[in-house]
Amino acid sequence: MTQGFEGKVALVTGAATGIGRQTALALAAAGASVVLADVAKAAGEESAHAVEAAGGRAMFVAGDIALNDDVARIVKTAVDAHGRLDCAFNNAGIAPRGAPIVEMAEEDWDRTIAINLKGVWLCLKHECAQMLAQGGGTIVNTASIMGVVSGPGLSAYSASKTGVVGLTKSVAIDYARAGIRVNAVCPGGIGNTAITSHPDNQRDMEQLAQMTPMGQLGQPQDIADTVLWLLSPQSGFVTGQAIVVDGGFTLW
Which candidate in 5, 157, 175, 249 is catalytic? Predict the structure, then answer.
């Protein structure tokens, strides 16, 4: 088990389902007090209850990471409740149905960038301010294999996730000497998430599994394990990296 979370306070955005929920559960099991944030209030509260039912310490805060005031409130709520913020997993994001750029509506581009890229920027802005004040911390952002490679009809999604990779590297440089480490995780096809379990995406997920050298989709726990390592002291000399967890998909 990854160690180093006893007495730590961790924030997880996009914690209502899938990777976010599993990571919140894993952080709590490793000893952290976890603040879960999501725009989906009912599902987010359910995730917090699941953490508590498993013996962990959790609280839920509703908010939209694309809105500065919401992000500021989420971080403030965590600090007011626990006195500090040691770890953050900026996981919230969307994966809308793709379309060639000529067919894409401007509002779809704007929404994707607002949540997937600006949202992570806002989270980093407020988290880093708190971590600077307290003398350090660790952060992981959710990017995607589509921030490393791309595919047809993914101009908005790929641009947003490529942006997260670049943002991760830049902020890691800015605050490396201040004791703040910032990394990204780039999931491949992951089953049992709100996005991949949607009926409209089943055919795509089956094709993705077939194209993956390991011949299967990953699971939320695969990402949670990677995130915990990146947030823990065990990765203490790792910063500014985009770690691909994809069953070998990007090896082709």
Answer: 157
